[in-house]
Structures are given as structure tokens and as C-alpha cells.
């Protein structure tokens, strides 16, 4: 009897596993790709707004580690002058994943099949020889292997003060709120967070006609740095990387060595971005050398600085945002929300400025949570994930940073028939949210499944 592999989630991770199983390994299994949305790509790539560009150059966005030019070649079918360093609309990437899924299914020579199922998985029973998934409509599916690729969790409420607001004045998740409707008003808004999500929201609001002031509050008021227009020039960092891997495993020692090397590069005329890029292949090793206390220390003190240097934006997006900032249209504020009051047809927000520099107030029509995806499975906002947490199948690691998995991508229960792939791998690998890392994880997961069931 044909084996059944169910992949829960059709974002990048789930789609990439299916593509590897059927198109690269030619698995004979029946692969069922289940998602509540009918399209591939997950939240990250499901956007239809052309202002939402990939934050990674096209040349680094292939879904296939075996074919690094795959995405660039796909782009050239519909766009002219796409090079490896081009930043293209995110919506194009969703179409690319859909194309790869269809191509993988067609090229499979061993009887493997792909079934797309638009549904929500609300339960999983692993007590028998095979697993059973329960869908929201009551349907049950018997499976031999389950890949949990549930993607990003819903954003957490960033401040208790915001809990008093109704949906009229508070958007808890910008990707489910009607931002286009809000954009028609020339009213001021407050974005909580100043990272990648907030920058997407700014560009979407402006493109849809919003002309009010956009305040952005975050702990330090930092915004992501830009990529360079040119591709990296310096590629030889072996001695530096080797010194990191034998250094004292502490956040302070890593920071000292990285700063010193960046300083050396400044003198020699190369860019700090080269150093950050060079760190990526060994980041999981550096992370795994740290003990629990050092990992938590990194999260408390350095993660915000790492994020704005590591997770960069297209140069054209950076130029646009700096222009808006210069005009006073976007106003970053470093501080924390301490109080929110209804005030007329809007809300008045009180912000304690960082460094005890007093208080800042703004009157806005809407507060939009732009803190990004949640990582705490205890507050997942997903029925299936919450069930698996309550049963101990999924276990939180590092105070809400991710979940426990082993080197075979098995979750805490240790069951061979369940694999996890997605952003919650960051607790074990740190680098687990971008395509260059996730495509390799997808390759690994697919090979493990193929070795187990064919």
C-alpha cells in the first residue's frame, strides 16, 4: 500500500519538503499538502502588494539547494533584466513555489502524487501504528508520516496597556487587518515595532493613499539596515571564522572578535556586510556552542542589534524610508508604551522614552502591532499546536524562543513519524527563518522521510 506523507502547512518550508520528496527524490509516497489558504507561500509570500519586495536578492532565493539559479531563471520568464542582486516582488515568489510544486509532481517517475488540500488541521492522534489527522470539518486522514510546517505563530500583544483596546482601534495582526481600508484616511497611526513588518506596513499604507503621520515605537527605535547595491566582494574569511569556532563560547567573546574583524575590514576597505554574510554558514555552530544562560543573554542584550544588521532591506526601500523619515512622515520613537486612553474618535498613547528621557504622547486613529511573528508555542493561537504542546509532543525551549527538536528533526516526543521544519527551529539553530537556511533543512527532512518510507 502506498505510504502517505501529510505536510501541515504550505508556506515555504512545507512546500519545499514536498518539492524535494516528489521532484528530487522521486518518492513513491502520496504527499498531501494541507493549508487553510488555497495558495502556497504562507504569510511571507501571500501578499499581492507590489510594494512588498523580497528582503533577499533573487540570486539567494532558490528553493533548491541543488539548483542555486532556479529562482533567477524563473523570474526571467516574466521580468526583464533580473540579475542575482535584483530585489523582486514577494508575490512572484509564491508563484514560483506553486510552479515548483507542479513541476515536481509532473516529473515524479515512481508513482508519487501530490494532493493540495485547503483545510485546517485541528487534531493529531499518534497512538496507533499510523497517525490520524483530524480536520476542522471532521474529516480524518490516516498518514504514515507527518511534517509539521505550521509556519510563524500569531503575533503576541506587545504591551498589556494595549489589551484595553477594541478591534476598532487596535490591529493585532497586520496581515489579517484591513490596512487598505485604513489607508484611505489621512489619520495618524502608531506602529508597535520598527523592524521588517513595520516597514512593509508603512509601504503598504503609503501605496494605498495614507497621508497621515506614522509613528513607530520600539525599545531602541532601530530600523533595519540596507543591503548594498553591489554583491559582496571579499570572500576569504576562513581564518576569522576558524578563530570564532575555537573561541570561548560566550556572547561577549563573539562580539569582541566580530567587532575587531569589522574594524580591520574598515581599514582595508571592505564592508561590514561581508562579515555578517560570512557568519551565516557557521551561525548554527556558534549558537550551539553557547550554554542556556549565554543564549538568553544574547536574546536580552544583542538580538535587536543582530536583527537590524542581519535582516536587511532592499536599497530602494531603505532610500524611500529615509526620505519619508526626513519629511517627518514616519517618526521612530525609542521607548515603551505605558498607557493608552480612548480620546474622541481615536486613542492617546503614552510612551516612556528610553533612558528616562521623559514621556512622549501621540493621538492616533489606530495602533497596529508590527512586532512580528510570535515564537512562544504556549501562546500559539493555533488549535493543533496548542494540543501538541499540552500532550508534550512539542516542548518550548529558551523561554519561548522555539521548540525542542533533535538532529533528525524529531520533536520532543521522539516519534519517528513526526518531523518539524520552520522558524521554531531557531531555538536549536538560530538561523531558521530565511530561505537559504530553510531550503537546506527541507532537503534534510525530505531525505530522512525518504529513507524511512521511500
UniProtKB/TrEMBL annotation:
Keywords: Signal. Residues 1-18 form the signal peptide. Residues 6-152 form the FAD-dependent urate hydroxylase HpyO/Asp monooxygenase CreE-like FAD/NAD(P)-binding domain. This is FAD-dependent oxidoreductase. It comes from the Bacteria. PANTHER family: BLR0577 PROTEIN. InterPro entries: FAD/NAD-bd_sf, HpyO/CreE_NAD-binding, L-asp_N-monooxygenase_NS-form. It comes from Pseudomonas umsongensis. Pfam families: NAD_binding_9 (PF13454). Gene3D superfamilies: FAD/NAD(P)-binding domain.
Amino acid at each position: 500500500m502506498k505510504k502517505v506523507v501529510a505536510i501541515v502547512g504550505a508556506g515555504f518550508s512545507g512546500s519545499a519538503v514536498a518539492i524535494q520528496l516528489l521532484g528530487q527524490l522521486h518518492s513513491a509516497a502520496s504527499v498531501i499538502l494541507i493549508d487553510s489558504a488555497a495558495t502556497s507561500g504562507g504569510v511571507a509570500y501571500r501578499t499581492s502588494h507590489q510594494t512588498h519586495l523580497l528582503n533577499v536578492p533573487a540570486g539567494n532565493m532558490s528553493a533548491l539547494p541543488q539548483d542555486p539559479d532556479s529562482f533567477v531563471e524563473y523570474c526571467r520568464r516574466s521580468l526583464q533584466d533580473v540579475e542575482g542582486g535584483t530585489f523582486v516582488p514577494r508575490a512572484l515568489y509564491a508563484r514560483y513555489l506553486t510552479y515548483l510544486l507542479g513541476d515536481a509532481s509532473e516529473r515524479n517517475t515512481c508513482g508519487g502524487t501530490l494532493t493540495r488540500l485547503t483545510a485546517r488541521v485541528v487534531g493529531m492522534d499518534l497512538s496507533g501504528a499510523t497517525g490520524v489527522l483530524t480536520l476542522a470539518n471532521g474529516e480524518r486522514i490516516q498518514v504514515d508520516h507527518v511534517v509539521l510546517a505550521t509556519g510563524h505563530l500569531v503575533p503576541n500583544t506587545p504591551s498589556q496597556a494595549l489589551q484595553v483596546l477594541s478591534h476598532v482601534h487596535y490591529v493585532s495582526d497586520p496581515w489579517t487587518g484591513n490596512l487598505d481600508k485604513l489607508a484611505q484616511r489621512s489619520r495618524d497611526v502608531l506602529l508597535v515595532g520598527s523592524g521588517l513588518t513595520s516597514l512593509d506596513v508603512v509601504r503598504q499604507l503609503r501605496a494605498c493613499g495614507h497621508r497621515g503621520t506614522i509613528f513607530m515605537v520600539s525599545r531602541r527605535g532601530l530600523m533595519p539596515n540596507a543591503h548594498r547595491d553591489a554583491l559582496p566582494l571579499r570572500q576569504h574569511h576562513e581564518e576569522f571564522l576558524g578563530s570564532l569556532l575555537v573561541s570561548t563560547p560566550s556572547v561577549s567573546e563573539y562580539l569582541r572578535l566580530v567587532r575587531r574583524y569589522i574594524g580591520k575590514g574598515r581599514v582595508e576597505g571592505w564592508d561590514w556586510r561581508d562579515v555578517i554574510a560570512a557568519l551565516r554558514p557557521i551561525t548554527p555552530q556558534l549558537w550551539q556552542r553557547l550554554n542556556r544562560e549565554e543564549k538568553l543573554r544574547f536574546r536580552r542584550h544583542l538580538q535587536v542589534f543582530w536583527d537590524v544588521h542581519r535582516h536587511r532591506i532592499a536599497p530602494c526601500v531603505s532610500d524611500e524610508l529615509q526620505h519619508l523619515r526626513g519629511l517627518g512622515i514616519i517618526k521612530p520613537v525609542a521607548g515603551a508604551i505605558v498607557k493608552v486612553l480612548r480620546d474622541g474618535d481615536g486613542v492617546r498613547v503614552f510612551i516612556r522614552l528610553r533612558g528616562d528621557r521623559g514621556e512622549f504622547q501621540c493621538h492616533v486613529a489606530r495602533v497596529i502591532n508590527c512586532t512580528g511573528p510570535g515564537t512562544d508555542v504556549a501562546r500559539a493561537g493555533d488549535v493543533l499546536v496548542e494540543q501538541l504542546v499540552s500532550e508534550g509532543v512539542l516542548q518550548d525551549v529558551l523561554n519561548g524562543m522555539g521548540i525542542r527538536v533533535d538532529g533528525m528533526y524529531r520533536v520532543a516526543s521522539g516519534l519517528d513519524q513526526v518531523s518539524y521544519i520552520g522558524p521554531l527551529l531557531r531555538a536549536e539553530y538560530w538561523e531558521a527563518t530565511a530561505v537559504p537556511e530553510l531550503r537546506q533543512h527541507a532537503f534534510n527532512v525530505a531525505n530522512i522521510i525518504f529513507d524511512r518510507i521511500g
